[in-house]
Amino acid sequence: MEKKTVNYTLKSAADHDEDDDDLVDHPKVPGWFSEHCPIWPGQAHFLKVEKILFQGRSEYQSMMVFQSSAYGKVFVLDGALQLTEKDECAYQEMITHLPLCSIQNPNKVLLIGGGDGGILREISRHASVQQIDICEIDTMLIDVYKKYFPGIAIGYEDPRVTLHVKDGNAFIKSVPEGTYDAIIVDAFDPIRPDHELHEGPFFELVAKALRPGGVMCIQAESIWLPSLDIEHLTAKCSQKFKGSVDYAWTIVPAYPSGVIGFLLCSTEGQFVDFRNPVNPLDPNNNMGSNGVGTISADDEGTKQQVNIQEEDDIIDH
Amino acid sequence: MEKKTVNYTLKSAADHDEDDDDLVDHPKVPGWFSEHCPIWPGQAHFLKVEKILFQGRSEYQSMMVFQSSAYGKVFVLDGALQLTEKDECAYQEMITHLPLCSIQNPNKVLLIGGGDGGILREISRHASVQQIDICEIDTMLIDVYKKYFPGIAIGYEDPRVTLHVKDGNAFIKSVPEGTYDAIIVDAFDPIRPDHELHEGPFFELVAKALRPGGVMCIQAESIWLPSLDIEHLTAKCSQKFKGSVDYAWTIVPAYPSGVIGFLLCSTEGQFVDFRNPVNPLDPNNNMGSNGVGTISADDEGTKQQVNIQEEDDIIDH
What we know:
Two copies of one chain form a homodimer.
Chain A: E1 32-34, E2 43-57, E3 62-68, E4 73-77, E5 80-84, H1 88-100, E6 108-113, H2 118-123, E7 131-135, H3 139-148, H4 150-153, E8 161-164, H5 168-174, E9 180-186, H6 202-209, E10 210-219, H7 230-241, E11 242-251, E12 259-267, H8 287-290, E13 307-309
Parallel strand pairs in A: 6-7, 6-9, 7-8, 8-13, 9-10
Antiparallel strand pairs in A: 1-2, 2-3, 3-4, 4-5, 10-12, 11-12
């Protein structure tokens, strides 16, 4: 789960290592964590920190895990709250099932970002899916999630999952045209260095990687944020995807404004009505939440390690 | 709008007059306001205060109005955030139109609490309504809203409105059986001193005041609050109202968890399906938001002062 629209410069109560110039207008409270959210100034949501469980920095980003009083364990990425145990389900379920329930029998699914594994866990609940590719560049992030959030990282245990350790932009370029039924983008800014996602070629590459009538779902901010221009966004995406475009939202109390939105797009082909799901989720298929135990007898029957394809193994087209 | 489930003891940055014993576990930041929300400890949502516009105390409660950076003007009652200019519409519209759109041609409507006037503004948008009674005990609260939130208190300008200055419990006892088509309760704790709303006789009195197949809507907390037991609540209400019972929610970012719920009940009589409105709101009838200008030519044609019936004028039955 990567929820970054800007370079957050937020700090937790435990961060003391950088200068505080950008925090002049943002309150700090010892023993409490808060994002400094420059996209909606003048407010701050604080969580009480019971214990800091992990702090570290990978090649790409800084990470912190803490035990909160109110939301269970919390994962912080470059100072931005990524997810909490209490409400991660609301986000992971919606970003996954909105696209996957909108088409018949999704088979091949790509996840870009989403290194925590929660979306993998949810994709796993669709019995029709045979191939789940995830492109996540930061293996340290995955390791931290596996250690501190096993109920989320459990998504990696599904034998259908293949991890591609690569930059999302480079990976999407390498995908043969029409490969996937669904692509979920859990990184509003999946390409480094930062750039404008909607104006660049990324969406066109995603559209190209989808089969006709395939679907994409991407996190698209809160409807309460003044910076969000849904009309502009959907118009842009209509041009690029050439199928249907819709906007959805759900409630995630730990996020700013308590709401997060999703942009849903389908490519030219069979019409996709995102408001009326055609592929109901089997309520008995809870593989994601209780491990491989409910994989049907038709599956290989062995729990296998997640397949990892290192960056160099990918052939760029 | 009275959003109280407990005795909030919250303090703003501007409150210095009481002891701070109960704030040991709650952060304070100079120049920022936050509720101290004992029903969900370990988190705090802060709003930056640009200017305090009003502070005062009526016979019943303390009030504060401040200009925030992020949410426009904010009204605080006994330390609890009641509403903000930015997101009040989300609350007022849902608590009003959920019940009023669920029945054909609502005629007589009672509002208990809701002294700010925003729900009156929304009720006014229903052309079928001929009588709007509001029971609000605190006239100072009304005056403060009229001065600082004219776009909300505009609801009082509708000539169909009669204000009853009385305690909500006493008033509901005085209502003849079967009087109202709809009753909206905008005070989770409408009776002072504090008591258990769901266990006491209040709901039975509301049901009695409704016609057969009439509807009630009351604020019913956030689905994210651990204290909310929707099953228990709806079971209790099924017993008391004997019609249909449902639970709804909407997003109000300034409230704890960003979500607020509503309990909807109908009395024995014609079945009410709260999920499929039968009385669509006329989108051209925006009387509430732009004053009396759009009252139809069939109305009296004169803007009149709100009718006020003082407490002593009410005959107790």
